[in-house]
Amino acid sequence: MPLSPAETIAQLQSLLGADQVIASPERMGSFLHEPRKRFHTPATAVALPGSVEQVQALARWANEHGVGIIPQGGNTGLVGAQVPLRGDEVIVSLARLDRVRTIDAGAGTMVAEAGVVLENAHRAAEAKGAMFPLWLASQGSARIGGVLSSNAGGVNVLAYGNARELCMGVEAVLADGRLYQGLNGLKKDNTGYDLKDLLVGAEGTLGIITAATLKIFPQPEEYETALVNIASPDAAFTLFQLMRDRAGAQLNAFELIPLIGLQIQLRHGMLDRDPTAGSSPWYALIEVLRPKGGRPGLLQEALEAAFSQGLVDNAVVAESLEDRTRMWAFREQMSECQSREGASIKHDVSVPLAAVPRLIEEGSAAAAQVVPGIRPVPFGHMGDGNIHFNFSPPPGADNGQFMAGAEPVHAAIYEIVLKLGGSVSAEHGIGQLKVDLLRQVKDPVALQMMRAIKDALDPKGILNPGKMLG
Predict the structure, then answer these.
(1) What domains sit in the chain, N to C, each tagged with a CATH number?
(2) I want to staple 175 with a disulfide (CB 3.0 to 4.6 A). Which of 157, 158, 242, 458 is the partner?
(3) Are 155 and 41 in contact (CB under 8 A)?
(4) Is residue 295 scored above 90 in pLDDT?
C-alpha cells in the first residue's frame, strides 16, 4: 500500500529530524514557485538532508516505499525539472550540502558540494587566485547540483564550454541509495563508460548529484569589452568570424541583442543610461580576455579591422569596470525586461552558427504569419548558436489571449529549428515542459537507449518521476 501523506511526513521526520522536514504548504512556497510561475503542483513535503549519508538514507527509503523524490538546487530552472508534476512527490533540497571541500589552483580543480551557490563557487576560486568560469544571470541563487543536472550554459560557453565540459567528476546517490564515487580530477581516464557525463544533464532522473570536481582556471589579466552597433544578424555572423580569427581562444563572449531589447529596458527604467553608441537595429556584446602576460589591445585591433570592412559603424569600448558592468547588465536583463513588458512566448533553441541569421529571419516571418504585429525579441549566445527566440505581444494586445495562441508560434519556430539542423532545447533542458516535444523530435533509437538507461538505474521510477522521458 502506498504511504499516506501523514505517514510520509512522519517517516521523513524519523529519518532526518523534525526540523529538517517542511510539511506546511505556506513554508514550502519558495521550493514550489519556480521563476516563470508556470507550474503550480504541490508536494507532500520538502526534505533537507544535511549529509551525503542522509541523502542515501532518503533514497533507500523512497525506493523501498515507491515514493517519488525530486532533487532541487536553487529552484532556478526554467522547464520545471525541479518542481512537482504529480503532487505526491517529496522535494529533496540539497541546500545544506554547501561546502567547498577542496581547491587546488595548481591542478586547476575544485570539489564543491551540490548545494554550493554558484556565486560562492566563484568567490572560493577567486580567493585562491583562480576562476570558475560558468556565469549565469541566476548565479546568486543557482546551486552547483542544479547547474550540473541541467547542464547549464551561460555566457562563457564560447571560451570554456558548458557545465558538462567544466565538470571532471561527480559523486552521486543512486535510486537504491548506493553512492557512486566518481570525484576524480583526472584529465585522462580511459576505463570504460563516462558515467559522469551520463549524470550531468540528466535532470536528477538517474541519480542525485551530491558533489562534483570542477575545472578552475587562472584569472585573466583583464577583460576587453565592447558594445558594437551592427546592421543585421548576417553582419553579426561575419563579425563573429572576424573576431574568432583575430582572438582565437581569447574570445570569451559574443552576444547578440536586438534594438527592441534596449527600448524595453529604457522604457521600464532598467538602465541608468543608454550603454550603446546610439540607435542600431542590432548590437553585439563582445568580450576578449587577456591572460597574464598577454598582449593588450586585441579587441581594439579587431574592431578597427571590422570598421575598415564596413561591418561596424559605431561601438563603445568599456573603459572601466563600471562600463563593463553596465554593458553586461544590458545583456543579462533581457529576460527580465520582457516580463515587465508583458507576456512572452519563449524558445531556448540552437542551430549551427552559420544558420543563426536564417533562424532569426525565417522565424520572425513565420511568427508574424501566425500573430500579425507580434514583436520578435531574439537574443543570446550567437557565438555558440544558442538563441533565446522570444516574442512579445503586439502593442495593446491582451496577455492572456496572446499566450493562449502560443502553440502555433512554438510549432512554427521548432519546425524551422529542426529544418536547420538545430535543437529545441539548447541550455534549459527538458523537465516537464518539453516532455511531449522531446518524444516528437528525438531519434527513436536515442529515446530507446535513454529509457533503457533509466530502467537500469531507476527501475521503480522514483527519481524525478515524469520528467524528461515522461
Answers:
(1) 5-93 (3.30.43.10), 100-218 (3.30.465.10), 222-330 (3.30.70.2190), 342-419 (3.30.70.2740)
(2) 458
(3) no
(4) no
